[in-house]
Amino acid sequence: MEELKKTPLYEAHIALGGKMVDFGGWALPVQYSSIIEEHKAVRTACGLFDVSHMGEVFVVGKSAFDYIQNLVTNDITTMTPGRCRYAVMCYEDCGAVDDVLIYKFADDRYMLVVNAANTDKDIEWMKKNVMGDVQIINESPLWAQLALQGPKFEEVLKAAGYYGEIPAKNYTFTENNIVAGVRCLVSRTGYTGEDGVELYCAAGDAMRLHAALLEAGREFGLLPCALGARDTLRFEASMPLYGHEMSDKINPVECGVDFAIKFKKPAFIGREALIQPKTRQRIGLKVLKGLAREHMPVLMNGQEVGFTTSGGPAPSLGGNYAMAIVPADCPDDAVWTVDVRGRQLPCERVELPFYKRA
Amino acid sequence: MVPNDRKYTRDHEWVMAEGSVAKMGITAHAAEALGDIVYVELPVVDDEVTMGESYCVVESVKASSSVFSAVTGKVVEINEELDAAPEKLNEDAYGNFIAAVEFTEIADDLMDAEEYEKFCAEEA
Predict the structure, then answer these.
(1) Closest C-alpha to A101, from A91, A90, A80, A115
(2) CA separation (Å) from A126 to A68, A121, A243, A274?
(3) Which residue of A has its CA nearest to B56?
(4) Is pLDDT of A183 > 50?
(5) Counting CB atoms within 10 angstroms of each CB, which of A114, A318, A327, B120 has the fewest?
């Protein structure tokens, strides 16, 4: 077996008793204590995640703005330095290469945060579509990324010693903060459906920052959290996960991330295909008895019409849920079931997101 | 830790036979490895079960795991409490059976508590 890649926090995961798994080629913990306890800590107090496996790709040069405008579905015209924006990179056929978070430093300098398992593929695609004066620089190995998520995140940051400005608005960031003696870029972003920040620091500082945040967070009920809780949190908040709700076979319109698609923009890769009437949609199902997971057949009025993309428990809501890709036009009174190992589990169609922060 | 009033399989199930009826469940070791259990797909009374074959699926947050039968026979009772409270398997795996089976055949390679503890230690 190919040796797994390690994040700068590998030793911390081992010391904390993390149950390590192969996550897209990375050795990462799936849980420390209990996925449900970690999940609840984020909803009610705070959780600290290592997300250093995410890729940080810089786009630098005079043509950076035009280049990104052409590369992604969202419009970056209204972005000022210090802002973040979610967007999707599409192929010409509008299948998704990846979903990304764009950070703007200046008109000629942006950072794209990409999914770990997609980093190489994304960079290849980005380089293939280079135009004008632009450089694509993969800085992923230089950076560690920690996600501090949950209602108590600000108290934890202050207790750890925070010098600088905590980004006040969602999808903004500040640079050159000193957190527990470590220089960080801090963005008001996350992937849990909860308030919080993501901290980017030099890889070599990660152990120190991680330990300091854990220590400072103890009195606030902070738990170290791992991939299992990250998935239940994003699932409950119905945020798409690349490879599940969105992929090269599920385009962003079908995925339902309309807020990140700007057809007003005259051109971007995949626009022509994406603007066609949509034939499929992502829906939410509450599984009334039993538990469905991804890639299971979904039946409407007894006929197979689609498949689940993710499924499992929603610990903060109680009960089991699934997201599914089904035809765009489904009657409101349709009867839904998911086929789990030959059994038809009764479901109720529910609005997305399943969980919305109060 | 591991109760010595019953026998164990290499797939981390326990079986307690009294007369012609065997109660079956999963071990604390199995429950620990699975993590938070959120659903138990129970068999139905009168289901025929076969030694070495799956008769139940335990769903944890992350994974589905089959539970294998140590006996061949017919289900006479299921633990319906697990329907509403699957986490009981995490809390007390030995105090909560999954199903009771009136059996005609029972596996001949079951381990006693001491052997099972040793088996777990070797597996780790």
Answers:
(1) A115
(2) 9, 9, 19, 19
(3) A341
(4) yes
(5) A318
Assess contact for A188 and A171: CB atoms under 8 A: yes
CA angle A11, A13, A19 (to 5 degrees): 130
The CA distance from B41 to the nearest CA of chain A, in Å, is 7
- What φ, ψ does residue A157 adopt, rounded to 5°? -60, -45
Q: CB-based contacts of A90: which residues, under 8 Å, 6+ apart?
A: A73, A96, A97, A251, A252, A268, A269, A270, A273, A274
Tokens linked to A222: 């902070």
- Strand pairing category for A320-327 and A336-340: unpaired
3-state secondary structure of A170: coil
Token pair, residue A12, equals 């911390």
Alpha carbon A147 to its chain centroid, in Å, reads 11
Q: Is the pLDDT score of A1 beyond 50?
A: no
Tokens 């919080």 belong to residue: A196
CB contact under 8 A, B38 and A320: yes
Q: Any idea what DSSP says for residue A70?
A: H
C-beta neighbour count of A155 within 10 angstroms: 16
Quote the CA–CA distance of B108 and B105 in Å, as a whole number. Answer: 9
User: Above 90 in pLDDT, residue B62?
Assistant: no
State whether residue A320 sits within 8 Å of chain B by CB: yes
Q: B7-123: what fold?
A: OB fold (Dihydrolipoamide Acetyltransferase, E2P) (2.40.50)
**Helix, strand, coil percentages, rounded to 5, for chain A:** 25, 35, 40
* Amino acid at position A167, single letter: P
Residue B32 burial (10 A CB sphere; 0-12, 13-18, 19+): exposed
Average pLDDT, chain A: 97
Angle between helices A227-236 and A35-44 (to 10 degrees): 60
Distances A338 to A198, A324, A334, A335, B43 between C-alpha atoms, Å: 36, 10, 13, 11, 19
Residue identified by tokens 């995410």 is A54
Mean pLDDT for the stretch of residues A189-215 = 98
